[in-house]
Amino acid sequence: MRSMEGTPVFYLEDNMSLTQEGLDMMVDTGAWTEETIEAMGGREALLSNNIASDQIQIYQLKNGKIYVYTGHHHGDSTDNKEHRQLMPVLVLHQIQKI
């Protein structure tokens, strides 16, 4: 856990890709219907065009509420990782001041 201006901040990095199980979960939770999936080209099309992306997530606890900021990027090991990590933090900092 980290803090920003005295407020606790959880910072996570992850890799996201769409799977058959993910599609099933979207239908099971009611977020999507099978009709929604078909309108996007169907399960096979979604899975065959699946591009994994690295995710950055920041969870901030403030005034009894949790704020979630997420972002993703597509890149390789030559990218400036520190820059990718800094951008969501700068966005979070700017949002706090609004």
Characterise this structure.
The chain is 39% helix and 33% strand. It has helices spanning 20-28, 34-39, 43-48, 81-97, and strands spanning 2-4, 7-16, 53-62, 65-73. With 98 residues, it is of the alpha+beta class. The two termini are 24 Å apart.
- What is the strand tally? 4
Number of distinct helices: 4
Low-pLDDT windows of residues: none
Succession of helices and strands? EEHHHEEH
**Structural class of the helix and strand makeup?**
alpha+beta
Arrangement of strands in the largest sheet: 1-2-3-4
> Termini separation (Å)?
24 Å
Q: Let me know the largest β-sheet.
A: 4 strands, antiparallel
Helix content: 25-40%
Shape: elongated
> What is the average per-residue confidence, as pLDDT, rounded to a whole number?
76
Radius of gyration: 17 Å
Beta-strand residue fraction? 25-35%
